[in-house]
Amino acid sequence: MKDRYDVIVVGAGPGGSITAKTCAEGGLDVLMIEKRQEIGDPVRCAEGVGTDALLKHIAPDKRWIAAEVKGSRIIAPDGTEILMSSDAAMKDVGYTLERKVFDRVLAQKAAMAGADVMVKTRATGLLRNNGKVAGIKAMYMGEMHDIKADIVIGADGVESKVGRWGGIDTSLKPHDIETCAQFLISNFDPGEYSEFYIGEKYSAGGYVWIFPKGGYTANVGVGILGSKSGKIRAITLLQKFVETTIPDGKIIEMVVGGVPVSGPIERTVTDGLILVGDAARQSDPLTGGGITNAMDAGKIAGEVCIMAKEKGDYSVRTLKEYEDKWRATIGKEISRALKVKNLLIKLSDEQLNQLAHSLDGVDVSTMELPKLLAVLLKKNPKLLWGLGSLF
Amino acid sequence: MSVEVNRFKCGYCGACVGVCPKGALELIETWIEVDDSCTSCGICARICPVGALEVKVK
Ligand SMILES: Cc1cc2nc3c(=O)[nH]c(=O)nc-3n(C[C@H](O)[C@H](O)[C@H](O)COP(=O)(O)OP(=O)(O)OC[C@H]3O[C@@H](n4cnc5c(N)ncnc54)[C@H](O)[C@@H]3O)c2cc1C
Ligand code: SF4
Ligand code: SF4
């Protein structure tokens, strides 16, 4: 086991693996550690991704595509449906992934590019040199090791500790997290669209999703805003939904988890440290999607590490480039999504129905979400007052 | 210990770890550990998706 690297990546999710791969391809000596013994398992995800955002990073591979989806169907509380589909060519707009395979393939790509990978290895703290982050303390199979590095990447997901150890308070307030439960349901034909059931009827400040997972299976889950959870919990809402909506479904897997929906946090770098993905709270506050944002951020982080190594400067002065770049790209989308979310969660079920009805006779089938929101805004200026500045 | 974890219910998802303002929780392998910086604020118990946490007042 080596005791020194250029870069150590903590966490082997999509964000960590892309960071490690990018660093390794740039000639850096990089180690990625993962505390679980099996990368990607247990899953904490509904596994939905947009093809465009994903295929920037990786060529499609049957091994990790569980299903291809043609678009989204949003179901208002009174049952009114809004169908958002693909382009006119009806190409698939999304995938449901098999993340157990996907995450491992990404880690393997990092390894093939030259990164060292250690599983069942948990970071327990940071090493410091003159106040700067200088590596990690890690436990591997019950034994402690110090491993030095010029830069530590915190890609440790929703439960992230790396940022906190580095002096960045990433703790999430209850209203900054969606707390979720999901069943993989079999004996059920979910069709070819991802479905989103919105409104308090299903969940307060969240939604129910049905993502086709291939064969006669689907990921059926619910997220509820942390501040509304307590007396009612995600698991109870999900059980209720499944009993009433998919009574013949058979549950063959269970997933629980939390997604950050805080929007951009104040700081994601410090001297010798960068936060990536859910650890940097970069998931989309409206949809809860975080896979491709984590990958985009990982790419930027890797490139900045390469630059820092060339300069021989690992201080905030150089690493700030990461901060600037992600805020100028995915950060913009995340901020906009946060504003939309903050407005939508205030609407009553009646108002959501009203929004859905306002689309009567409008062909939204080829629209992406921003365009759809712009149309909604035009038709419901009062209800959506405040969104005007976004479009 | 001021938070009790029902290990038989917990799905070791780490959501509670992310919301603890004190950093008192840690997900180790398949269980949650609570250290003595816990103030019994109850946030973790509220957000747990399955209700595996119960606050015990010190
Ligand atoms: C129920 C649910 C449904 C979701 N659905 C979707 C969806 O449909 N589409 C989508 O895009 N996103 C979805 N998300 C969000 C998505 O799962 C995350 O945004 C994504 O996994 C973030 O990737 P990441 O690499 O930042 O972190 P993660 O994938 O969470 O990886 C972090 C890794 O770090 C490891 N780790 C943590 N601490 C340490 C430590 N101290 N030492 C070593 N390793 C450590 C963890 O074990 C983990 O493997 C969902 C989330 C949940 C909970
Ligand atoms: S939030 Fe609940 S299920 Fe998740 S790790 Fe904490 S105690 Fe376990
Ligand atoms: S009760 Fe509050 S301080 Fe204690 S572990 Fe839970 S969130 Fe942390």
What would you note in describing this structure?
The complex is a heterodimer of chains A (391) and B (58). Chain A has 391 residues and is an alpha/beta fold. Chain A has three domains: 4-44 and 100-172 and 264-336, 3-Layer(bba) Sandwich (FAD/NAD(P)-binding domain); 69-89 and 174-260, D-Amino Acid Oxidase, Chain A, domain 2; 346-390, no CATH class. Chain A is built from ten helices and 18 strands. In chain A, β10 and β11 form a beta hairpin. The longest helix of chain A is centred in the C-terminal third of the chain and has 21 residues, at 291-311. The relative contact order of chain A is 0.16. The model of chain A has no long low-confidence stretch (mean pLDDT 95). With 58 residues, chain B is α+β, with helices and mostly antiparallel strands. Chain B has a single domain (3-55), classed as 2-Layer Sandwich (Alpha-Beta Plaits). Chain B has helices spanning 15-19, 43-47, and strands at residues 3-5, 25-28, 31-34, 53-55. Chain B has a two-stranded antiparallel sheet with strand order 1-4. Chain A binds chain B through residues 35, 42, 44, 122, 157-161, 164, 170-174, 177, 179-181, 226, 229-230, 233-235, 254-258, 260, and chain B through 11-21, 23, 26-29, 43, 45-51. Bound molecules: flavin-adenine dinucleotide (FAD) and iron/sulfur cluster (2 copies).
